[in-house]
Amino acid sequence: METFASGELCDYEIRAEILNAAEFGAPQVRKRVIVIGVRRDIPHPGHPEPSGRVPATVRDALAGIPGFAGSLSLPPRKTRFRGVWLPGAFKGSDLHITRDWSPLYQDRFRAIPYAGNRHDLPDELSMDCWRNNPRSASDVMGRLEWEKPSVTIRTEFFKPEKGRFIHPTQHRAITHWEAARLQGFPDDYLWVGDRAQVARQIGNAVPVPLAEAIGSHLAQAL
Q1: pLDDT at site 146
Q2: Tell me, what's the pLDDT at 77?
Q3: Pair 77, 176 in one domain
Q4: N or C end of the chain, less CB within 10 A?
Q5: pTM to 2 decimals?
Q6: One domain for residues 17 and 106
Q7: Domain limits at 39?
């Protein structure tokens, strides 16, 4: 707990806790500091308690998503917002896209086994920065595992050189649709923006099950 004795927040009690989204039903290990503040004349509600459920897994999150069909770009669709035409709106199935992987990346994907990572690459498929730092970034070029929650979905989840973002069994990074599912978004949620903007929206979001738990907890207090 942290309190402020002066300034604009002097009349508020501020409490901060680290919450793990996986403990609230999200298929993702994502720890974030959640800050809740109330006026001192109101009892502080504290933070929500973990659900106690068995954590959801990557398999749970990606259930029902069809095999990748090779789409590299979003549908050519526009929506007008405040006088500006923007890409979208897109539903989950519109986001089943990936990059045009070079032959080198395709060889790397094939060389990485289930649950593996860059350490499984032969020297000819590795990079100097990886070989020279054998103990660092063990999740780089890593495959997700079906029976575990995913790692934290970041804004560049479509770049496997940034973390453990390779599909468990297919030779590619996860798609935007799969990343949105791992964040807990329903398939009918509407996204607006180009592929990089949508990726940032997905990666920067609070996982939906955690947001729901916080919202429900505060609603009960109110």
Answers
A1: 98
A2: 94
A3: yes
A4: C
A5: 0.90
A6: no
A7: 2-56+209-221
Q: Which of 135, 143, 141 is nearest to 170 (CA)?
A: 143
Q: What is the 3-state secondary structure (H, E, C) of the chain?
A: CEECCCCCCCCEEEEEEEEEHHHHCCCECCEEEEEEEEECCCCCCCCCCCCCCCCCCHHHHHCCCCCCCCCCCCCCCEEEECCEEEEEEECHHHHCCCCCCCHHHHHHHHHCCCCCCHHHCCHHHCCHHHHCCCCCCCCCCCECCCCCCECCCCCCCCCHHHCCCECCCCCCECCHHHHHHHCCCCCCCCEECCHHHHHHHHHHCCCHHHHHHHHHHHHHHC
Q: Alpha-carbon distance 55 to 12, whole Å?
A: 34
We report the CATH number of the domain holding residue 140 as: 3.90.120.10
Phi and psi angles of residue 109, each rounded to the nearest 5 degrees, phi first: -55, -45
> Per-10-residue mean pLDDT for the chain, 222 residues long?
66 93 95 92 92 89 90 92 93 94 95 95 87 77 96 95 95 96 97 96 96 95 85
Residues 39 and 108 in one domain: no
pLDDT of residue 62: 97
pLDDT value of residue 10: 86
